[in-house]
Specification:
Layout (H helix, E strand, L loop, with lengths): L1 H6 L2 H20 L7 H19 L7 H29 L5 H4 L9 H7 L9 H9 L12 H25 L10 H8 L1 H21 L3 H13 L3 H4 L11 E7 L10 E2 L2 E2 L2 H8 L3 E8 L6 H11 L9 H4 L8 H7 L3 E5 L9 H8 L3 E3 L11 E2 L2 E2 L1 H14 L4 E6 L24 H26 L6 E7 L9 H8 L5 H6 L5 E4 L7 E8 L3 H8 L23 E2 L5 E2 L3 E4 L2 E4 L8 H4 L3 H19 L8 H4 L2
Parallel strand pairs: 1-9, 1-10, 4-12, 5-6, 5-9
Antiparallel strand pairs: 2-3, 4-11, 7-8, 10-11, 13-14, 14-15, 15-16
Helix pairs in contact: 2-3, 2-4, 2-7, 3-8, 4-7, 9-10, 18-19
């Protein structure tokens, strides 16, 4: 052993330890899917190549500095890996630079963070301890090479990186063009090279606004007019049915459709929403998909307010809060509505205090507007029942008609609920997250039932329409094994995409023709749909969504990872499925998804360009209506 240590430089030992450690974390802690032997080899090869790239720099340093450099780079690299793992367990995604700008959200994540820690995470730092031990002077594992030797050692870096890129392109052609799927990037080039790539993309997108001009917005306007159904086909019997009525929009945190009609030990999870879904005065879209990305709830707000897609990296609420928009609150303000948001969290979370002001909200009732006590708060803060109850007085004080958005908190990861407040048992699986999910869902269901009664008691109900929408998933695919147990089937890409369906219910007191509709729609369609119900025509608006009640709609709902859903097909993970059966289409029929795939890519790019380039500053929405 002593002989080996004297003949093997520490930077080589660190490379092997760090590379193999990272592979094990990829394979068994991230649980990245492996489809073939080539992917397995790349998953092993790329962390070793990345580690060598970093540690080989030490050969150019003086012996004393070599050891210091290797100690700290091993620690920093391990921290990067660890933080990505924690982030992945919550969001099934990897950290991007825009997400780091959302750091002021971290103060509210303490409980969630502790839930995401596992005892085996200690393994991530095992090689750090060994490298620090071996870097002691008595082992003398420094490198003393002539200049030619240093150049040769560095040249190996470029050979390894080139080999990694070539293998990645062979395994996944156009990998860097399909950058919306970060898991493919990490699997093929490694998490450290992925972060370098992300930094490059950040620089590119920051420059995009500087060099943008008004020429592209005309191209996008033409595209939207050509792909949107004719105005005559957008009309429906519901046009203007809610004219001059209040709109109460409830964003129900982390609520997915599989909760409907579910039972735990014979007890309904959501009895109120189950009944509401079937009532004649409620229109329910059972194939409504959330379309959020890394911004989660803020993304759902952004999509609904603007009918634009969220960015693939970070939250628009943070990265582009100062852009020009033609948002729903602004439009309603011009029509005489008072607009407000109710959310019992701190005003700066997701940068809401800045973004809400920019998109035209008149009032933001944040946590300072509520009486929060130890008795009425748990998890992320004020419980939903107290939240709705304390909000009624503010609703009564608003000028009518009003548009008020409520964002609930109780049904939020890690789905903590005091035992005495639980009216349904926990589920029994290997996932603590899924087990608790049903209890907080039941609590929020009870809170919504009370809220409806409180609206009636306050005299607000009859003059309002109430919209309920799930903002994003609550159970990520990190819990697919437990979800498979609950559903009684394997969670493959088709099932995983179907799990992205969330509630969208429009409750219209006095309406008698409601029911469940099976049309495929998404959050991008909410803005034009609400304007349609309110009888407000925005002919000059630029939106990627359509009125859900139109006779003809766009022929797909696109998700940010490149998946999409149509009436006939579902495309996910490079596979085209028959939407009605869930079976992959034979190769000769799978071509049917290709034209739609191109449309999705084009539409996402157009929406991204609007945001990155702040293109609406070049567009006169008022002039375009004339």
């Amino acid at each position: 052993m002593q002989w080996r240590m004297k003949n093997m430089p520490l930077f080589i030992i660190a490379t092997l330890l760090f590379g193999l450690k990272t592979y094990v974390v990829y394979r068994f802690m991230f649980d990245l899917s492996i489809e073939n032997p080539m992917q397995e080899f790349i998953l092993l090869f790329n962390p070793i190549a990345s580690a060598y790239l970093i540690f080989a720099i030490s050969v150019w340093m003086k012996p004393k500095n070599q050891m210091k450099y290797l100690r700290w780079t091993t620690l920093i690299g391990s921290l990067v890996l660890f933080l990505n793992l924690i982030f992945y367990r919550n969001f099934t995604d990897f950290i991007t630079i825009p997400v780091l700008f959302q750091g002021n959200n971290a103060a509210d994540l303490t409980g969630s963070f502790l839930t995401l820690l596992h005892i085996e995470d200690i393994f991530i730092f095992a090689d750090v301890a060994l490298v620090w031990y071996l870097s002691r002077q008595k082992f003398d594992l420094t490198v003393k090479l002539p200049k030619r030797g240093k150049i040769a050692a560095t040249a190996v870096t470029f050979l390894l990186l080139a080999g990694n890129v070539v293998l990645a392109e062979i395994e996944r052609p156009m990998l860097f063009v399909r950058a919306f799927d970060r898991e493919y990037l990490v699997k093929n080039i490694g998490i450290y090279n992925y972060h370098l790539y992300d930094a490059t993309m950040q620089t590119k997108t920051k420059a995009q606004r500087v060099f943008a001009d008004g020429s592209e917005i005309s191209e996008i306007e033409t595209y939207l007019k050509e792909t949107s159904p004719d105005q005559a086909n957008k009309d429906s019997e519901l046009y203007g049915i809610a004219e001059d009525k209040n709109v109460i929009f409830v964003s129900v945190e982390s609520f997915q459709n599989f909760l409907f009609d579910s039972e735990i030990n014979g007890t309904e999870t959501t009895p109120f929403l189950n009944d509401l879904k079937q009532s004649k005065d409620t229109i329910t879209f059972e194939n409504f998909y959330h379309q959020t990305a890394q911004g989660k709830t803020s993304d759902s707000e952004f999509i609904v307010e603007n009918s634009l897609y969220p960015l693939g990296r970070g939250s628009v609420y943070f990265t582009h809060a100062g852009n020009e928009y033609n948002a729903l609150p602004e439009i309603l303000n011009e029509e005489g509505y008072e607009t407000s948001v109710f959310h019992a969290n701190n005003a700066s979370f997701w940068n809401r205090d800045v973004m809400y002001d920019n998109v035209g909200y008149d009032q933001f009732y944040d946590e300072k507007s509520y009486e929060v006590t130890p008795e009425n708060s748990f998890g992320w803060g004020l419980e939903d029942k107290a939240f709705f109850e304390q909000s009624i007085k503010y609703l009564q004080s608003q000028e009518k008609p009003f548009y008020s958005k409520f964002i609930t908190l109780t049904h939020h990861f890690p789905f903590e609920l005091p035992e005495e407040k639980a009216n349904i048992d926990k589920y029994d699986s290997n996932s603590k997250t899924l087990n608790s999910y049903f209890q907080t869902a039941r609590y929020t269901d009870e809170a919504l039932e009370q809220f409806f009664q409180q609206l009636k008691d306050a005299g607000i109900y009859e003059d309002s329409i109430i919209v309920l929408m799930g903002d994003h998933y609550g159970i990520s695919d990190f819990h697919n094994k437990a979800m498979g147990q609950f559903l009684g089937k394997e969670v493959d890409p088709y099932v995983q995409t179907q799990l992205q369906r969330v509630p969208f219910m429009i409750h219209i007191p006095g309406y008698e023709n409601g029911g469940v509709q099976d049309k495929v729609v998404g959050q991008i369609d909410v803005k034009p749909t609400l304007l349609h119900l309110l009888g407000i025509e925005e002919k000059g608006d630029l939106t990627f969504g359509d009125n859900m009640f139109a006779e003809k709609n766009k022929d797909f709902v696109a998700l940010r990872d490149g998946s999409f859903i149509t009436e006939e097909y579902l495309y996910s993970n490079e596979t085209c499925y028959d939407r009605s059966t869930g079976e992959p289409l034979p190769e000769e029929n799978a071509q049917a998804c290709h034209p739609i795939k191109e449309k999705v890519s084009k539409e996402m790019n157009y929406s991204d360009n609007i945001i990155y380039g702040d293109l609406f500053r070049f567009y006169d929405f008022d002039q375009s209506e004339k």
